[in-house]
Amino acid sequence: MSNIFRELLKKVGSGNHTGENLTRAEAAIATKMILLGEATPAQIGAFLIAHRIKRPTGEELAGMLDAYDELGPKLQPINATSPVMVLGIPYDGRTRTAPISPVTALILAAAGQPVVMHGGDRFPTKYGLPLIEVWQGLGVDWTALSLPQTQAVFEQTKIGFIYTRHHFPLTKSIWEYRDQLGKRPPFATMELIWCPYAGDAHLIAGFVHPPTEGMFQAALELRKEKNYTLIKGLEGSCDLPRDRTAIIALSASPDLERLFLSPHDYGFTTKNVPLGTTEELITQIQDVLLGKPGELTQTALWNGGFYLWRSGICSDMRSGIAKTEELLTNGTVAAKLQELSQIVKSASENTLQHI
């Protein structure tokens, strides 16, 4: 048993009257001890539940991110004219609405904007469709690449994907606890604003519950992250909703700049595309990449327009939407997917040859 960890557990688990928040340094210590298995299973399980009930603070999230920075992987800086966009998306996937972020990443990369994504397989508690399976359905298998190979792909294509199962195996124990506990611990909140890129980054994070936005802001300010966008997105993702006004916060000092975007104002119907089978989704995405009209194409235009504007490639939403339509209809985005698929496949084959 770790006496150090027991004291940290006592702070977060003592209830409303005597419990205390952890300092940033204490949160970093607790996170490292969990990742490295230096606390007992009983201590770790108790801590995760107690911390969930208490709710994390921005300072605690900052400490957890410090630990991830120390122990986790990072893609190294590439030659880029703008900050690399890092998309923070819930690791336990999607169950209700069709994800569009892989298409968004392809649109951005096709326009010259580098993008980093991160995640893993089907994870608890939701066990929804993860990004890794969407990419595999599109012919891009990130799971076979080492971190140096992923770096090379990123440098060539402007798209990178940190696959946590291989690139950050220390997190495996967290998922095992999460499965056994049946609840999302605060790590699930922190992952949304984790930045596995060592250069100048623009963090994009989705959220569901409004208090999360304040925690994000506090954590990022403590870590001196000044370039971020927070979105009340579909199922907590970075995907802009179409069934309601998108509530967005843009980093600004000292306060967030609030932005409200209504799909109706830009000529889009106000409904989200439901998620069917994975095969159906892949077919829908392939139609989008061919420039065919359809509901998911509308979602791609809506999101592509926003992100091309937010990256600085386009001057406003309307020009971003027009640019997205152009990139889809002239085959540029489809060509980017083909390039990415071929380069990842070539890297994977090199791996197999050396086994």
UniProtKB/TrEMBL annotation:
Q: Which species is this UniProt entry from?
A: Nostoc piscinale CENA21
Q: Where is the Glycosyl transferase family domain?
A: 97-332
Entry-linked InterPro entries: Anthranilate_Pribosyl_Tfrase, Glycosyl_Trfase_fam3, Glycosyl_Trfase_fam3_N_dom, Glycosyl_Trfase_fam3_N_dom_sf, Nuc_phospho_transferase
What is a biological process (GO) this protein takes part in?
Answer: L-tryptophan biosynthetic process
Identify the Gene3D superfamilies for this entry: Nucleoside phosphorylase/phosphoribosyltransferase catalytic domain, Transferase, Pyrimidine Nucleoside Phosphorylase, Chain C
In Swiss-Prot or TrEMBL terms, this protein is called: Anthranilate phosphoribosyltransferase
Q: Give this protein's Gene Ontology molecular function annotations.
A: anthranilate phosphoribosyltransferase activity
Q: What is the top-level taxon of the source organism?
A: Bacteria
Q: Which SUPFAM superfamilies does the annotation name?
A: Nucleoside phosphorylase/phosphoribosyltransferase catalytic domain, Nucleoside phosphorylase/phosphoribosyltransferase N-terminal domain
Q: Name one GO cellular component term.
A: cytosol
Q: What are the entry keywords?
A: Amino-acid biosynthesis, Aromatic amino acid biosynthesis, Glycosyltransferase, Transferase
Q: Where is the Glycosyl transferase family 3 N-terminal domain?
A: 6-70
